[in-house]
Design brief:
The protein has nine helices and seven strands, in the order βαβαααβαβαββααβα. The relative contact order is 0.19. A hairpin with a 6-residue loop joins β5 and β6. The protein is globular and about 45 Å long. The two termini are 12 Å apart. The strands form two sheets. Strands 2-3-1-4-7 form a five-stranded parallel β-sheet, sandwiched between helices. A two-stranded antiparallel sheet has the order 5-6. It is an alpha/beta fold. It has a domain of 113 residues: P-loop containing nucleotide triphosphate hydrolases (Rossmann fold, 3-Layer(aba) Sandwich), CATH 3.40.50. The protein binds BIS(adenosine)-5'-pentaphosphate. The site of BIS(adenosine)-5'-pentaphosphate has 35 residues, from α1, α2, α3, β6 and α9. BIS(adenosine)-5'-pentaphosphate (AP5) binds next to α1, α2, α3, β6 and α9.
Length: 214
């Protein structure tokens, strides 16, 4: 199964993608996680990407598209994948369609997780992330069992640099301008599943898996 997660920053794409990856035994590929790992490891890519991410802007396509295309030809993607945070521009979507048409065929579903902007600001201020396994928590809605410690791997949780309110507002503006048009792009291919992302995490997951036919 080849799935794309659409939706605003903080809509819950990463949270749902992790659960879906486990259920369907396919890799969860998050461009945001890849960039953050490169920033942490001090690579050239991380150095270039950091300025854009901290400003709430998109990392340029020339640093992003080949990175994802190379990842999709890995052996673990043979039975499908979940793309979280890619594509984010019409150009990225077209490049993905071109690449998949030449190899394994078009994506199966683009899951649009819908959450209003006003809820997003609140979610971001309470988000805590695991630097090791990428799990995402919320101090009020989805708290870890032990404060600031990841349930899955025991690492200490951290707050993302780009979760400051001003940066979140910028990210939302960029989303509406550059990424939301992808909903029309994938609707024209008859691939979009729309999900109400304001419900509790498990209810959102149930709604998605019901629509996926399982
Ligand atoms: P990225 O890491 O992809 O960030 P994003 O899309 O902005 O999405 P987030 O990770 O912020 O949110 P999410 O939807 O995954 O929500 P989550 O599940 O964590 O990208 C970061 C940056 O990298 C971009 O700004 C850009 O600069 C760059 N980048 C990445 N990909 C790129 C690309 N393709 N091209 C160019 N640049 C790119 O949930 C959010 C919070 O809500 C958490 O606290 C969570 O616990 C909580 N939550 C989740 N579900 C629920 C629920 N149902 N109810 C209540 N709370 C919930």
């Amino acid at each position: 199964m080849k799935i794309i997660m659409l939706g605003a920053p903080g809509a819950g794409k990463g949270t749902q993608a992790m659960m879906l990856a486990e259920k369907y035994s396919i890799p969860h590929i998050s461009t945001g996680d890849i960039f953050r790992a490169n920033i942490k490891n001090g690579t050239e890519l991380g150095r270039k990407a950091k300025a854009y991410i901290d400003a709430g802007a998109l990392v340029p396509d020339e640093l992003t598209i080949d990175l994802v295309m190379d990842r999709l030809v890995s052996d673990d993607c043979a039975n499908g994948f979940i793309l979280d945070g890619f594509p984010r521009t019409i150009n990225q979507a077209k490049k993905l369609t071109e690449a998949l048409t030449k190899s394994s065929g078009e994506i199966d579903w683009a899951i649009d997780v819908e959450v209003p902007d006003e809820d997003i600001i609140n979610r971001m201020s309470g988000r805590r992330m695991c630097p090791s396994c990428g799990a995402s928590y919320h101090i009020a809605h989805i708290p870890p069992k032990k404060e600031d410690i990841c349930d899955h791997c025991g690492a200490e949780l951290y707050i993302r640099e780009d979760d400051k309110e001003e940066t979140v507002k910028k990210r939302l503006a960029v989303y509406h301008e550059q990424t939301q048009p992808l909903i029309d792009y994938y609707s024209s291919l008859d691939r979009v599943i729309t999900i109400d992302g304001t419900k509790a995490m498990d209810a959102v997951f149930k709604a998605i898996t019901e629509k996926l036919g399982d």
